[in-house]
Amino acid sequence: MLEILHRLLFATLDAAPALVFAALGAVLSERAGVVAVGVEGMMRVGAFCAAVAALVMPTPAAVGIGMLAGAALAAVHGFLCIRWRSDQVVSGIALNLVALAGGTFLLETHFGPNGTPPIQQLQPLHWPELASVPLLGALSGHAAPTYLALLLPLLLQGMLTRTPLGLRLRAVGDKPHAVATLGLSVPALRWGAVLGGGLLAGLGGAVLSTTVLDRFEQHTPAGLGFMALAAMVFGRWTPLGAFAAAAFFAFGNALRIGLASSAPGLLDVVPQGVLLALPYLLTLLVLTFQGQRNSTPASLGVPYEQESR
Amino acid sequence: MGERTRQALPSVLSVLLSLLVCWMLIAFSRDMDGMATATAAYLQMLWGGVGDWPRFLDGAPATVLTRPLGEAAMKAALLTLTGLSVAVAFKVGLFNIGAQGQMLLGALAAAVVGAHLALPGALHIPAALLAAALAGGAWAGIAGALKLYRGVHEVISTIMLNWVAVRLVDNWLVVGPLRGVAEAGASITGTAEIHPTATLPRLLGDMSRLNLGFVIAALAAVAVWAWLTRTRSGFETRAVGLGDEAARAAGIPVARRAGLAMALAGALAGLAGAVLVLGTEGRYPGTLGAPYGFDGIAIALIGNNHPLGVGAAALFFGVLRAGGTRMQLLDVHKSFPELIQGLALLFVAGRLIWLAALRRRSAPKPATAAPPAPAAQVPHA
Amino acid sequence: MSLDIREGELLAVVGENGAGKSSLMNVLYGLYHPDSGEVSVGGKSVRLKSPRDAIALGIGMVHQHFMLVPTLTVAENVVLGREPTRRGLFDWERAVKEVAATCERFGFVLDPRARVDTLTVGSQQKVEIVKALHRGARVLILDEPTAVLTPQEADELARVMRGLVAQGRTVVLISHKLKEVLGVADRIAVMRRGRLVAEVRPSETSATALAALMVGESQRAVMSNAAATPEEKLASEALLEAVGFPAQGDNARPALRVGEKPPGDVLLEATGLQALGDNGRPALRVGEKPAGDLLLEATGLQALGDNGCPALRGVDLTVREGEIVGIAGVDGNGQRELAEVLTGLRSLTAGSGTLLGRPLKGLTPAEARARGVGHVPEDRLRRAVVKALSVEENIALGRHSGPPFAKGMWIDFAGRRERAQALLAAYDVRPPEPTLPLQALSGGNQQKVVVARELDARPRLLVVVQPTRGLDIGAVTQVHARLREARAQGTGVVLVSLDLEEVLALADRVYVLFEGRVTGQFTRPEYDERELGRRMLGAEQAHG
Question: Tell me, what's the ipTM?
Answer without folding.
Answer: 0.90
